[in-house]
Amino acid sequence: MADLDLSGSSNLVALVYNEQPPPVDPKVLQERLKKEKQMKKDEEKTKRQREKEKEKEERRNTKMTSPHNKRVTIEHVKYSSPDDSDGVKPREVVDHTVEEEEAPEDKSDFRCGKGVIFCLVIVFLISMGVAFIVSFKLTEQSLGGRKTIIQEEDGIVRLGALFSSEPDDDVEEETEGRLPRNIEPIWYNLTSRVFLPGFVDIPANKLRLVENSLLAKFRVVSDTKEIVLNSALSKIPESAEEWKILKEEGDRLVASPVQVSTVTVNSTAETVLLALNGGFKAGMEFLLKVSYVGNLSSSKIGLYTSTYRTVDGKERELVVTQSEPQNTRRILPCMDEPDRKAVFRMTIEHPKGTRALFNGIETGTEPVATTPDFVRTHFKETPRMSSYLLAFAVSDLAMKVTTTSRGIPVRAFVQSDLIDHIDYALNVTVKMLEYYEKEFQIPYPLDKLDLISVKDFSFGAMENWGLMVFHERFILFHPQVSSPLSKKEVAKLLSHEVSHQWFGNLVTMKWWSDVWLNEAFASHCEDTATARAGVMEGLDDLFYFKTQGDAHSDDSFASSRPLSTPLHKQVEIAQLFDSTTYSKGASIVRQLEEVVGVDNFRNGIRAYLKKFSYGNAGHDDLIESIKESLRANLSYIGAELKPFMRRFTKQNGFPVVNVERPDTMHVELSQEWFQKDSNSDGLNKHGASYGHVWEIPLFYEINEEPKAVTWMTEGLRLPSNQSDLLILNSDSRGFYRVNYDPRSWSRIHEQLNKNHTHLSPLTRLRLITDSFALADAGKLPYDVALDTIRYLPSEDDRIPILGAIQALELIQKQMGGNEDQEKVKTFIRRVLTQFYKKIVNWERLTFEDEDIIEAEIVDRLINQLWQSGDKEVADKLHRLFEDSLLNQCKDANSISSQCSKVPPLIRSISYCEGAKRGRDEEFNALLRLYKNEIAVTEKSRLMNGLKCSRDTASLKRLFQSLLDEKNQGLLSGKSVDEEVFLKYGNHDLSKKIYNEFFFENHEKLMKKYSKNTAIVSYLADAITASTKSELADIESFLLSNPSMDEFDGFAKAVETCRSSLTWQRKHAKHLVEEFEKRSNRV
């Protein structure tokens, strides 16, 4: 077989300009013709002026008789328009000749007098000024006739001034359901008796109930005759007599003369209004007391129960909280807004045999005299904190403890069967806690830090102050069960949550529209801090591949939202916990760090945390703190931070920098909004606060020489000849893409093919991902993108290879059910096989921490070759399924995490391949193992395998389990991990069946999950279409159900489907032809 050649079939410049001209917008064409017409008029006028000056020059020359008369000549380049087809015009010389008086004759010496030299200097400077003005005007004309042209140093010309700090336009959004500002909380004191079954005898009428007594203290801010609190309690007291208002008299609490007269519950706004029979004056303080009963639900919000299965098959229950974003109101009536901080005190009465946990450390336990077999646990009060950080739990989980160098206990709680899976998490937590204390220069303010592992949890983790809750998949690690990539996720998530103990808990955003401030910084820390703390090498580079890559992908849709999103409805708050907040937020924070420098960034963060400790802050407060850490007048970075950051946080999307070459000595840069599908503007319901114009920090290098960061708004002209190797956004330091002119792309390809190591691995990654994303969006021919990976056979660094695999993976995905899909798969197999043979060793699929990038690429190679139909890979996976799973786990009580010998790195796709090839016997074997399993990570893989079944009836029963009641259905009503169930491992048949299931059952699903918008987003994201008829079904369904518009996930699902079909129409045929041509080339 001939070697695979990834090179193009023709010269790149000819390809772009002759063979496949990109489509030209009629408005752009009309403007271009108008510009050219004006330029011709200007050229004719300039020509006539030159002819007149030439005649004057000749007349002067005839009069000049003295040999001392000199001619001073100044040259300047007349720039051609980017649209001139003749390319670069020759230099034109403008001669400025100055007549001078004859100098006295000196027969002994030939010298100029001082006066003559002075005159010559003056004339020369005047001539230079004239030449500059002419050049400036011509430059202005070639840059589009704009007025604001700024001459920078080093020959740089900027089109458009940098943005200055505009007046503060941050007006707090009017979100429905916001509480009035007439009172503020000081502290809450909650006593809860939890009737958790399975440990002691509990009366049937009290099973899974919680009896609560609340005493809270408030301060009056402004005169008021009412108290408004948040409450979503299922059984809120509605009698005025049940609410008592007290006041302090020395050490005693006595009844206040002002009492509650009426109680009004608004279940829609989730508030309770207590009208008073009198009034409170500003500055007064009062206490409110109420008792109420709550239910333990399984909703995964508020206070709820989670279950786990022991090795001996017993089902155990525990109680845990999830308060963020607005679920503390489901636990107690309170002021459930982030800037209503208060101290929380807690007492928990719970069954013997269980342990109670709270944000604060335990201070003592005692028997409950009135309730046999119950104990009462007291806790230390919390620091002043936001209500969404309230957390407590009751369980019989086993505990393992370690301490930091300062003696802070770090405790982990996990079911006893898995206690040896928690060691890695404990070690990482200690390292990160010590790292952040040093990094932020603020000691961790609590007396302990707890980690609790829960199987039923809607998120990866929750950063509750002092009591962090984790989904079991993201905290447990054991080499027999967990893959190296799972270990990476554990390390990253722990770094994320521990950073929140300062950034988010100690200092909190004022309102939810700035939640990105918390999550973006913590997501930034996932990779940078984890690597800098020495926990795991390679994560810093993976940030650019994974986190920044995800952000670019998600934010390229018109339906994406700004980081800082105005909130109008309460339901919109929970939707902010998406990829935009985490991935884009982290990318913008990383860009900010690159702009100001690591030391200035660190100093700014320290100042911010110290200034706003135990309080609230907005995003501008963070920017001001970083600004103060910079040199005077921001000369260090050359731009103002606030307008720069606002354009990246207050409008959706990101820019692409377009490079054009008007002549042989310069390049001109412009920007535009990068969109995957430019015809989808109608789905942008967020508008654009700044017209989709950004202030872009240009990190660039010319001929491997890094240049100082240069700022761009509307456009920029840089000196660069056509032989230069120009690289913009080197090392992926900025959040934008770059589209070069054809000559620059050719020069880049030439360098990659000649010696790619002259460009850094991160720069090579950026070139690959940008070129394919631009081609995907129709802004660059795919031939150019494919030429960017022509050099790959000589690539040894894993990061650029990962970028290429991901790009090819997207092409295959977007082909969908296209008739030529198999031809695309054939090409992808040919490209990836060369790396597969060089990198993958089936006998060594376990990796150490320092090999995390190697594990990532082995996983991607095997996975993508399997998806593209590689028979060798599929056969190996199937053999592992039969020999290392089914034959090892034959016993009816087998537990897959203990008996499976399939390497954890590839278990999920091995199980899937087994189910695809199997029948009822294999499906039932996977189902049996799923029901027996105790480790959530392994349950997730088994579920992925089940969804790969080709049996329609089995798949329908599987999806029905989302609605099955206890002891019913395929899974016997067992709780399912909705994220795994809906997001991962679906193939074409299961996707089609899911669509049908959702359309038929959407009312039941929304009724069950509407309060948990994380799960609603999973329901929306799982909707897909690969044909026009499937897309029409989705659009028809959404039109018939307008209430779905409240959830952004459905709009994104429609845009994704439309984009994929549009892509197939535009690119599929050409790509197939190009793939065949490249595959067959000798």
Using brief descriptors, characterize the structure shown.
single chain; 1082 residues; alpha+beta; 8-stranded mixed β-sheet; 6-stranded mixed β-sheet; 35 strands; 19% strand
Write a concise synopsis of the structure shown:
With 1082 residues, this protein is α+β, with helices and mostly antiparallel strands. A hairpin with a 5-residue loop joins β3 and β4.
Report on the structure:
- Strand 17 and strand 18 form a beta hairpin.
- The chain is α+β, with helices and mostly antiparallel strands and 1082 residues long.
- The chain has 29 helices and 35 strands.
- It is 40% helix and 19% strand.
- The protein has an eight-stranded mixed sheet with strand order 9-8-12-6-5-15-18-17, with no helix packed on it. A six-stranded mixed sheet has the order 3-4-33-28-27-35. Strands 20-21-22-24-23 form a five-stranded mixed sheet, covered by helices on one side.
- The protein starts with 11 loop residues before the first helix and ends with a helix.
- Helix 4 (423-440) packs across helix 5 and helix 27 (1013-1021) runs parallel beside helix 29.
- Per DSSP, what share of the residues sits in E-state strands of 2 or more residues? 15-25%
Q: C-alpha Rg, in Å?
A: 34 Å
Overall geometry comes to globular
State the separation between the terminal residues, measured CA to CA.
Answer: 9 Å
**Main structural class:** alpha+beta
Unreliable stretches covering 5 or more consecutive residues: 2-30, 59-112, 138-147
Query: Tally of extended strands?
Result: 35
**Strand line-up across the major sheet:** 9-8-12-6-5-15-18-17
Helix content: 40-55%
Average of the residue pLDDT scores: 85
Please outline the major beta sheet: 8 strands, mixed
